[in-house]
């Protein structure tokens, strides 16, 4: 009479592990990160560091 409701987490992420897919996912993350580091020019990295320093300075002065 009462139906047991299955959670979304169980439906979406089954308990079985697939090592090949996990390894493939890690490799894709590493490759994407490497491509970002190599393709973004140096001035962009320096501007991001500068923005980070400005924000850190503002937070320290509060």
Tell me what the structure shows.
The chain is mostly helical and 62 residues long. It has helices at 8-12, 19-39, 42-61. It is built from three helices and no strands. Helix content is 74%, strand content 0%. The chain is flat.
List the main descriptive attributes of the protein structure presented here.
mainly alpha; 62 residues; 74% helix; 0% strand
Q: Determine the number of helices (DSSP H or I, runs of at least 4 residues).
A: 3
* N-to-C series of helices and strands: HHH
Protein structure class: mainly alpha
* % residues in beta strands: under 5%
What is the distance, rounded to the nearest whole angstrom, between the alpha carbons of the first and last residues?
Answer: 60 Å
- How many runs of DSSP E, i.e. beta strands? 0
Q: What is the percent of helical residues?
A: over 70%
**Shape descriptor:** flat
Low-confidence stretches: none
User: Main beta sheet: strand number and arrangement?
Assistant: none
Calculate Rg over CA atoms.
22 Å
Mean pLDDT: 83
Q: Short summary of the structure?
A:
With 62 residues, this protein is mainly alpha-helical.
Q: Topology, please?
A:
Elements (H helix, E strand, L loop, with lengths): L7 H5 L6 H21 L2 H20 L1
């Amino acid at each position: 009479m009462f139906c047991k409701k299955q959670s979304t987490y169980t439906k979406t992420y089954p308990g079985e592990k697939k090592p090949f897919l996990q390894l493939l996912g890690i490799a894709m993350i590493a490759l994407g990160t490497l491509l970002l580091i190599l393709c973004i020019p140096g001035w962009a990295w320096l501007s991001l560091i500068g923005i980070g320093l400005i924000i850190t300075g503002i937070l320290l002065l509060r």
